[in-house]
Amino acid sequence: xxxxxxxxxxxxxxxxxxxxxxxxxxxxxxxxxxxxxxxxxxxxxxxxxxxxxxxxxxxxxxxxxxxxxxxxxxxxxxxxxxxxxxxxxxxxxxxxxxxxxxxxxxxxxxxxxxxxxxxxxxxxxxxxxxxxxx
Length: 134
Fold this sequence. Notes:
11 strands; mainly beta
């Protein structure tokens, strides 16, 4: 009647922090969130959120669900859901994301692809578009 599956504890997301004045060269992987206030050179993979603090810097690849960037990023950034770029941020490289928010003052020198953003035009919008181009 009762299965062990119902008695499992809920999954708790861990929070990982790379402190200021700390440098890691290599690959990091976790199910939880990451806050980077130091320097990472390598690949960061997580199903959680990546936060690059004002003093933080990542050079390499990042694969995550959500990201908030206040510091520097250079490389390949793949965000499944939302990328928020704060005014103090500097991003260079290739970016693939679901949604994008950019504050004025941010530096965003990247090729950007928004997945799932292409919407099908309905027949009325197509007709209007065709009339304007004719």
